[in-house]
Write a structure and sequence with these properties.
The chain is mainly α. It has one domain. It is built from twelve helices and no strands. Helix 8 packs parallel to helix 12. The two termini are 31 Å apart. The N terminus is likely disordered.
């Protein structure tokens, strides 16, 4: 690709930024549309989730993982759970929304010259805002219980960026297919809970047989959530081989999605 062609492509994406930001804001507003306190739920909902995980699993159920010191052990399962479930929630909500994105914005797509490649970014941007707020409350909780927040936290945004790239790649591919195959929407709704339970989010992977853990390592979300826990809980470098595999998988998926979109975009707009 020539420099001039690259400049034109970058300019095209830049022209889409106001629309992406507007759609991201609308995505956040629509989640609590009709509620009395409106936008405040963007802050309240993540806070309530953190408090539920802490109070229910640490205080009421007394669930814990040993090995972090007597004062912190009572909260270790909550830390383990929160580190995984915040990432999963961001992924699952984004993937579900992007899969249905073209159908839900059919009126916009057929009337406005909007880039179909850029449209999923609005969902990712909205979910990134929610994830950032949730992680902020999580960090306050860790500070409150004197759990160390180390320099390894600087790796969390990098892992989350990789998660967004994977979500975009898979979501865009599914969004294109969902226009032609209506079963895709239903399949995603059914398979996401299966994917949740085949990922060590609410249970510890150590309880599983070695053969099962070996198979789970091919699960992209296993690699991502393991990386978050390495950085946040164990304060160590995540497994780079698994993350490198995630990068490769994301590249393959996005290349496939963009190729398919390029081949079918005109028909796709007509189908909508």
């Amino acid at each position: 690709m020539s420099i001039s062609a690259l400049a034109l492509r970058l300019k095209g994406w830049r022209n889409q930024l106001p629309l992406i930001w507007l759609l991201a804001r609308q995505e956040l507003v629509d989640r609590h549309k009709g509620s009395i306190i409106g936008k405040a739920w963007t802050l309240i909902a993540p806070l309530i989730n953190i408090l539920v995980f802490v109070l229910v699993f640490s205080k009421i159920m007394g669930a814990r993982l040993e090995g972090f010191g007597a004062e912190i052990d009572q909260y270790t399962y909550s830390i383990y759970l929160i580190a995984g479930i915040l990432a999963w929630t961001a992924f699952a909500k984004s993937l579900s929304s992007i899969t249905n994105l073209f159908s839900e914005h059919a009126n916009l797509i057929t009337k406005v010259k909007v880039s179909l490649k850029a449209l999923p970014l609005s969902v990712l941007l909205a979910e990134a805002v929610i994830y950032t707020i949730s992680m902020g409350f999580f960090a306050v909780f860790l500070w409150w219980i004197d759990f160390p927040i180390s320099v390894w936290w600087l790796g969390v945004p990098l892992v989350f960026a990789l998660q967004l790239a994977f979500t975009y790649s898979l979501g865009l591919l599914l969004a294109v297919l969902a226009v032609y195959l209506k079963d895709i929407k239903e399949a995603v709704a059914v398979l996401l809970p299966v994917w949740f339970w085949t990922t060590p989010i609410v249970y510890v992977s150590d309880i599983l047989p070695d053969g099962v853990i070996g198979l789970m390592r091919y699960n992209p979300l296993f690699q991502l959530i393991d990386a978050y826990r390495d950085l946040i809980m164990y304060q160590r470098l995540p497994g780079l081989v698994g993350l490198a595999g995630m990068v490769l998988l994301s590249v393959v998926l996005v290349a496939t999605a963009l190729w398919l979109l390029k081949r079918t975009e005109r028909d796709l707009r007509d189908c909508l």
